[in-house]
Protein: Cysteine desulfurase-like protein
Organism: Actinacidiphila oryziradicis
Amino acid sequence: MTLDVAAVRAAYPALRDGYAYLDGAAGTQVPAAVIDAIASAYVTGIGNTGGPFPASHRSDAIIEDARRAVADLVGGDPAGVVLGPNTTTLVYRFAQALAATWRPEDEVVVSRLDHDANVRPWVQAAARAGAVVRWAEVDPATGELPVGQYDALLGERTRLVAVTAASNILGTRPDVAAIAAKAHAVGALTFVDGVHATPHAPVDAGALGADFYATSAYKWSGPHIGAVVADPALLDTLRPDKLLPSPDSVPERFETGTAPFADLAGLTAAVDHLAGLGGGVGVGVGGTGSRRERLLASMAAVESYERELFGVLLRGLEELPQITLYGKPARRTATAYFRVAGRTPGEVAEHLAGRGVNVWHGHSYAWELTGALGLRDSGGAVRAGLVHYNDRSDVDRLLAGVAELAGSSGSTGLGS
């Protein structure tokens, strides 16, 4: 199965503005089907949940559809899908609930590869509980997270291992399954941050060994909704703080306030869109097999397409003078993090914006990782990332814009 990228791009109204959207690692554009689903929810009429009237029934159905969609996307149980405003909020929610079971001298393992959303909530929760934080270190030369180090980090007091499925700046995809197996061997739980990984490849949270798997819809062409997927039986062992009248059932007990019903309708539409990416004509619809089966096929096609296009981007950057590329992981998403000698990351991003190319610069909330790379205090670096709607013209425009700066820099070249 291959992607018809022209058909894919035609589904995204925002791409008509002529910009090269290489900022997908910070959030993607949405297809017309998602926009239509959100508008349709409002046009049709929605009400709060649990009422005896049709508008309330529609909201109930929207929520259940969204749970099923997320479960299909990552390979989980709809009854274990917790929905929320974003992943950071949900991680804090679970950190509070899990830390209630920790005791002084219990241990929590976090990694310097992770986005701070899968670091700081655990560090802060551990401090309140009197638990010990242990750190898995990154190889700064390669950007890898060596699995062997976990043998020395884990023990009988380990309660949780938090690890990312993909670095949001280097793209590194560590061996999460191996790390999870080591964690489970000592009786620890695993919390896997799948925010950056989910848009780029097929996901099977169970095969990864994730007791909790977090993802954000706005990273895969949906609205700003976060989700954490877990075994409902595991969720039932946790007692988060909640309002007394709010539901005590799973997964509802983890969801505070009124749900954003229309956005949840958009989430389901985004998953349906992804499931149809491999179909070419009529992107987002049609196809055979279950939605889970179609998602696995589509995301495999996405992974293959992005790998090929990313090879063009990396080779182009490597051939330019004055460029430093960070990280050389063996398995990675299509995400590049680089500097141009003699230019600040902000200057590079501003120059590219003037050429119609959107990229981000700075630490991108990879606080520990940019510190380990020696970049955090000097402005981080430039991040350019590909998603399934990017094409060769986007990459060529980026390389042309960077070449303008690299060619005019008077500094000596830096190795990559």
Notes: The two ends are 34 Å apart (CA to CA). The CA atoms of residues 308 and 334 lie 9 Å apart.
